[in-house]
Amino acid sequence: MDAETVRKQLQEVQAELQRVEATREVLVNLVRGYEGWLRLNEKGAVGVQASLLSPEAERATKKRSNRTQGTMSVRGAIIQVLKGAHGEPLHASEIWKRAFNLGARTEVAEPKDLVDLNLISLRKRYPEIQRVEPRTYVWRNGRNGGSD
Known about the structure:
The protein has helices at about 5-40, 55-65, 75-85, 90-100, 110-125, and strands spanning about 90, 130-135, 135-140. By secondary structure, it is mainly α.
């Protein structure tokens, strides 16, 4: 197995982890919704019902709650936006605009700064992400620039 094969497999595994995490977040939100409904509608309920989530899942949910504000993580949205641009260079403000439209949310004052910070980190993991001008990035992988 050569380095290029390992990189491709790593990217596939990372993409699958992002899909699994997104599914997990949806399921956790469903559990919370059901728990909330039970608290509000269950007759004779006294106090707050014990969580249906396992203690480990509760802890993991609380740890992650500050990362994903919307329906998609900022990092995941950035990757999806760059891949979806099909080789078109995008400025950080445009990347944020598209990521926001995908459901990414943050409470930072300057989201484009957050995009830049994430891209600095992401470029170490994804050599396909290239900086072409200040605050401007492109996804290049020799193929269609879309999904792997």
